[in-house]
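input
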Amino acid sequence: MTGKTCLVTGANSGIGKETALGLARMGARVVLVCRNQQKGEAALAEIRRETGSSQVDLLLADMSSFAAVRTLAETVRQRYPRLDVLINNAGAGVRQRTLSADGIEMTVAGNHLGPALLTMLLLDLLKSSAPARIVNVSSEAHKGRADLDDLQYEKRKYNGFAAYGQSKLLMNAFTFELARRLAGTGVTANCLHPGVVATNIWPDDAPMIIRIITGLMKPFMLSPRKGAAVSLYVATSPDVANVSGEYFVKSKPATSSALSRDPQVIARVWQWTLTMTGVNAVA
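output
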């Protein structure tokens, strides 16, 4: 990865930090994107110390804020002449229905719309750096149910876990359409399930049932380093250099849900994403 520039969102802890560490060890220039400056600076110092690399940078952005994402994209375009790998790793669960700075339900804003907007704003840079890769960190939780007529839980009773799964369904459907539109450009787009990883994705005040289940499962969960292995494989392996539009589990192509592969669902998700983010045309 020497000479390549990689951007990782949500890089201050968990899978994101381990992914950034792995890329830095491979010789890449790594751009960490974190929401919290203090945690971001701690991660930056740790990665520089452990890898001995001076080619690790930190940028700050709240991925649920469109303004922050647009500022981030502009900074990346101005500061870096190329972008070889974009890893949309940032994601979180929310206990109660909360609105983002743009008035959008927080889970779908931070887990899908923000990453999608960043991707679309950086497409030209990725294309000019081709071969390049877009890697979206999804989850097997995407296989739950979704209501395309109520993606922001304005009509339904809010359920944090269901909202999280729905946001990952949208991410997968978006990825598959993006891959189709990028065919022939030298830029690939794939999504993945990192495994059941022990991370802090759920807040301390998460519903009791989630805390109980997480507590019981924790001894059997993967470490963040093992979870990052799938992201690193999809982002760097020569074996998948020309693979696009796939969903990876355990570093192998797997079956995404039928809903996420439904052409009508994909078309609706794509158009909804463009409408919500204010992007008129892409790819």
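quick obs: DSSP finds ten helices and eight strands in the chain.
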